[in-house]
Amino acid sequence: MTDHDPAVIRRFASRLYSRARFITGFYTLLGILVPLLLFTRQSQLGPLELLLTFAVGGGLGAAIRTERAFSLRLQAQMALCQLQTEMNTTPQSPARVAA
Known about the structure:
Number of domains: 1
Distance between the termini: 23 Å
Low-confidence stretches: none
Structural class: mainly alpha
Radius of gyration: 22 Å
Largest sheet: none
Helix content: over 70%
Shape: rod-shaped
Strand content: under 5%
Number of helices: 3
């Protein structure tokens, strides 16, 4: 059986947190731009319609990003918890305790 490397799990969790931060901005921007592009091709938008498009699109993007970012953060926390459980329950050899 191969020994696990805790640094790999920590790096994986760190990448998940980075992806969660990226998704937060990306989906908000996407939620604003996609409806704006769709509606501007169909007709000219007045200021009220433009504001409504930003609000609705941004709200939808925020809803999607919140769920996706939460899922990534949860995966990161689960990996870190499993690592901590492994570290707490694995018998320590005298060489590892001294290190």
